[in-house]
Design goal:
By secondary structure, the chain is an alpha/beta fold. The protein contains 12 helices and 11 strands. The mean pLDDT is 97. The structure holds beta-D-ribofuranose and calcium ion. Beta-D-ribofuranose (BDR) binds next to helix 1 and helix 6.
Length: 314
């Protein structure tokens, strides 16, 4: 077997973040070095606690979990309880976490790990606002050339936004951080709404997860049934978009996704379009490519992967 891909997940759980973490924990191709948490869907006090509850679920109580930024770089925090519930992880009733919160700041864990592991060997999967990533790059610019790849969920182009007409939530919460990350010269794979809106949970897909019958699978089905209600009520869809696991699934099965190398710039000034990801999909400028922007996936294969892997967890 090929060597495991080393991975740090930077997250703001979030039910879809939870599935991304569980998919990574269940995948023998990946070596999850740690989880860094950030304020986003809910404040940091909840995201770090939720991350630890998810580690418990998977039986990974020795997973290092760190708390990071409490606030975006330059703006007030915007949260998404309207989607994720007041805890950020509404749905199942989960006990207080046994997985400990590590001493030290998430940003220092990111920097120390990138510096100590072989250059180019560590992937970072940011699936929340990009505050921790930008703070790490500001504090230790030398890590930019040592990060193997960033595989992130955020942005949208053809689909527009989901928190404003122009902006996707993760980028909107901290546009400055996103702009700094996209400018850092790191190889980036981007999962915008254009692809994640094709990854709909659907009643049948959630039922298949529940049918696994394990503690983790039932908790995930409970999470998804809570999470789906927002899109079902607002948009009349069958299920909700399972955004964040697209990052981990791309690492495992990139052949199930398609996209283009593009230039991506972030709007950080206009009130109307704050946090918009301006993706030069048609290459109308000669601005340099700074991301592989994914636009499509094989949704059935994606949910098969998630279901198969969740079945390996307790
Ligand atoms: C993103 O925002 C959050 O609500 C989800 O967890 C996902 O990371 C989707 O816009
Ligand atoms: Ca998230």
């Amino acid at each position: 077997m090929a060597p495991k891909q080393k991975l740090i997940i930077d997250t703001d759980p979030g039910q879809d973040d939870a599935v991304a973490m569980l998919l990574a924990f269940a995948s023998p191709e990946l070596d999850v070095l740690g989880i860094t948490t950030v304020a986003g869907n809910v404040p940091l006090a909840l995201t770090q606690e939720n991350a630890r509850k998810i580690c418990d679920l998977a039986g990974c109580t020795d997973m290092p979990v760190f708390a990071g930024a409490e606030q975006p770089l330059a703006r007030s925090l915007v949260t998404a309880e309207h989607v994720h519930g007041s805890t950020g992880l509404d749905g199942p009733v989960l006990p207080p976490p046994a997985t400990p919160l590590q001493d030290g700041h998430a940003v220092d864990f990111l920097i120390d790990t990138i510096r100590s592991e072989d250059s180019g060997s560590v992937t970072i999967a940011p699936i929340g606002p990009l505050t921790n990533i930008a703070m790490a790059l500001r504090k230790a610019p030398d890590i930019a050339e040592r990060i193997g790849r960033i595989v992130m969920m955020g942005g949208g182009y053809f689909e527009g936004g989901n928190i404003t007409p122009a902006a996707e939530f993760n980028i909107y919460v901290d546009p400055q951080a996103a702009a700094e990350m996209f400018a850092a010269g790191i190889p980036i794979t981007m999962m915008p709404l254009d692809v994640t809106h094709k990854a709909m949970t659907t009643a049948a897909r959630t039922a298949a997860i529940r049918a696994i019958g394990s503690k983790t699978a039932v908790a995930v089905a409970d999470m998804l049934e809570f999470y789906e209600r927002f899109d079902e009520e607002k948009y009349g869809s069958d299920g909700g978009p399972l955004h964040d696991p697209c990052t981990i699934a791309w690492m495992l099965q990139p052949e199930r996704f398609s996209g283009r190398h593009c230039n991506v710039e972030i709007e950080t000034e206009s009130d109307l379009t704050m946090g918009m990801t301006v993706i030069d999909w048609r290459q109308v400028t000669d601005r340099p490519h700074n991301a592989f922007v994914v636009g499509d996936l094989d949704a059935d294969a994606f949910f098969r992967l998630i279901t198969d892997r969740l079945a390996k967890l307790p």
